[in-house]
Amino acid sequence: MTPQMPAWLDPSPWLDGRASTHADVERALRCDEPGPRELAALLSPAAHPFIEVMAQRARALTQRHFGRTISLYAPLYLANHCTSGCAYCGFASDRTQPRRRLKPPEAEKELAMLKEMGFEEVLLLTGERTSHAGFDYLLECVSLAAQRFHAVGIEAFPMTTREYGLLAEAGCSGVTVYQETYDPRQYDRLHRWGPKKDYLGRLEAPARAMEAGMRTVGLGVLLGLSDPGFDAVCLMRHAGHLQRIHWKSGITLSFPRLRPQEGNFTALFPVDEAWLARLVFAFRIVLPDVPLLLSTRERPEFRDGMAGLGISKMSAGSRTTVGGYGGAEPTTEGQFQVSDKRSVPEICAMLRNRGLEPVFKNWDSAFRDASVRGHD
How confident is the model at residue 328 (pLDDT cuts 50, 70, 90)? Predict the structure, then answer.
């Protein structure tokens, strides 16, 4: 049975916005408090002639709210075991790639390598909940990471409020849960089996994390799975809904595009770089103080151009294989192919050459620890 979208996730602005005129786009650019309808206008065909205006507005707003800094973080894949059948994912249970889970000493070794690279923020990733890599395993890894890093985030399976609370107590400060697509019919078709097929359970996970006291929650869609304009408006609706109810926590937004992966799933709604750039500009205009992220999925040249032009946070030196930082270039692909394979020093040099300052630390673990003590 196809799940129903909750009323607050109303995508009607996109359905109406596709017929936007140049005057609608100009009104959106002048709006003091832009919302989903303004976002839809900025993503409509009528906005094509305004791309340079949008880019300059995005640059100015990014500098106003984030200065000339770009926060850097590193992803660490802990396990690629999975019981779900997501048609687009290299970790899906019907893929033939070798399965592995880092043992705690191995995870500590990878964490030490990332620390040596200068990182102070790490994102721990797993597949869906399995007997190989369940909650207790993730909790142990968070505890290990919190001993070394000021900011520890997770991108894993949806959890209960209590589980998120235990992770927060162990030192986790952020949770990322991408809905992948907000279109319930498309979601149902693409998630063929497994726990991830629960649309509403995944949709409500960020609210549970915020209720448990997480400092930040990351949202996003996988561009290429559904109509990107539809998903963009729903993403903004989701962010606004969470900000109204859980205003003490922060929101970050990411814009990953479908990349080649095991299984060779191709994008159903291809998104090119020009449209992705306009998407970033539009979100910066309508959500000026929300951190916007861009991963190493994208080409180096595109990432260089987008840094500071809407984007305020980037991953660097990423490996998407389990144990990928432990030496030589991995011989098998990870969850997806990395396009920007530059080292951390190379990324930092690029940013400085563009008048930007790479930042490895913008949150101190002392605040995290004080927050946890405050709940005792």
Answer: very low
**Are residues 88 and 258 in contact, defined by beta-carbon separation less than 8 angstroms?**
yes
Beta bridge partners of 174: 153, 216
Residue 334: CB atoms within 10 A of its CB come to: 22
Q: Residue 290 is encoded by which pair of tokens?
A: 């929300």
Q: Is 331 a residue whose pLDDT tops 50?
A: no
Residue 152 burial (C-beta neighbours within 10 Å; 0-12, 13-18, 19+): buried
β-bridge partners, 121: 151
Question: What six digits make up the tokens of 130?
Answer: 């399995």
Cα–Cα distance for residue pair 346/327, rounded to 1 Å = 18
Q: Which two tokens stand for residue 372?
A: 């946890």
**Beta-carbon contacts of residue 203 (< 8 Å; ≥ 6 apart):** 6, 9, 179, 182, 238
Q: pTM of the prediction? A: 0.93
Contact 23, 202 (CB under 8 A): no
Do residues 216 and 174 make contact, with C-beta atoms less than 8 angstroms apart? yes
Q: What is the pLDDT of residues 41-57, one digit of tens each?
A: 999 999 999 999 999 99
pLDDT confidence bin for 363, thresholds 50/70/90: low
Could you tell me which CATH class the domain 55-322+335-374 is placed in? alpha beta
- What pLDDT shows up at residue 3? 83
Rounded to the nearest angstrom, the gap between the alpha carbon of residue 184 and the centroid of all alpha carbons in its chain is 20
Give how far the C-alpha of residue 72 lies from the chain's centroid of Cα atoms, to the nearest Å.
13
